[in-house]
Amino acid sequence: MDERVWEKTAQFLKELRCEDTGRLSQLQLPEYQKAMKEKFSYQPIYEQTVCEMTDEQKCVIEKYVGLTEQCAEEENQQAYLQGMVDMLLLLSGSGILKVPSNMLEKIKQWK
Q: Superkingdom of the source (predicted)?
């Protein structure tokens, strides 16, 4: 039961992080915006290059790009959750928030 609660919590936080992109509290880092512009500037070159490849080469590239995107998404989720855990520990350590004693055990399960 506890594992399902943590899974649902992680899913909720992921939705919060990814879906409500118009909220006032969302960060828009200039470095990210610059990287996105550069990425999109290479998109026509990428598409042209892929068109010139064999089907086998296309499959390899598509698989690699998909895995890269999946790794980036999981890395983002991990960093987001780490920030949440760090904030809970900070609030707990400063006495502002009382965190259940078994919380650290739950956090260790994510390692």
A: Bacteria
Question: Which of 84-101 are b and which e, b meaning 16 or more Cβ less than 10 Å from the residue's Cβ?
Answer: eeeeeeeeeeeeeeeeee
Q: Is the residue at 15 inside a domain?
A: no
Q: What is the Rg, in whole angstroms, of the alpha carbon atoms belonging to the chain? A: 20
Is residue 12 assigned to a domain? no
* In contact, 4 and 67? CB cutoff 8 Å: no
Asked if 98 and 92 touch (Cβ cutoff 8 Å), the reply is yes
Q: Report yes or no on 7 lying in a domain.
A: no
Residue 58, number of CB atoms within 10 A of its CB: 13
The boundaries of the domain holding residue 54 are 27-109
Chain position carrying tokens 């790009």: 65
Model confidence at 16, pLDDT cuts 50, 70, 90, reads low
Q: What is the pLDDT of residues 76-89, one digit of tens each?
A: 888 988 898 888 88
